Amino acid sequence: MQTSAQLFVIAAPSGAGKTTLVKALVARNPDFNFSISYTTREKRITELDGLDYFFVTPDEFFRLREQGELLESALVFDNHYGTSRSQVEEHLADGRHVILEIDWQGARQVRESMPGCVTIFILPPSRAELERRLRDRRTDAREVIERRLLDALGDMSHWREFDYAIINDDLDQAVAELEAVLQGHGQENHTGNEALQARIRAIVAAAESAR
Percent helix, strand and coil across the chain, each rounded to 5? Predict the structure, then answer.
């Protein structure tokens, strides 16, 4: 495990299984602190305020942003998301590793303000599997799912901006690969790895052709 407190930024397109992966990781590694984001979107019936997200009104969100409380913020699918700067800084100051689960836009902002962070992008194994996961949520209308799918395919093109990439096909394998990266290993998942690049390019190309 890293010897000093480290900030890990994990991003993914909607439906890639990022939340499930991060929760499994934190359950197995309690020394990691999951930073809870603010959002203006409606709470799903399976979510709890203060555990999954801090659900706030748009006015509250804009006030937090104006006061400099947000380390990063992004507009995703008509809803605002942001990370608490004080929450992250407090964890790091106390010597605790922090995991941010955000989108590629937010990751780009965090890289600019905290260049020492480690960034990881999660991809689905295929467009078909991505669509299946979005539909299996059973929380969105058909037209919402279609838009999420299109947005997700666009998000996938940003994987090159990240230090590492993990293809979330099998959950246990993906968690193991993520743990390796967080422990300072995981060179097979480095985005400079040519074999990994070829796999990702094939996934993205197939997804684009199926649009």
Answer: 45, 20, 30
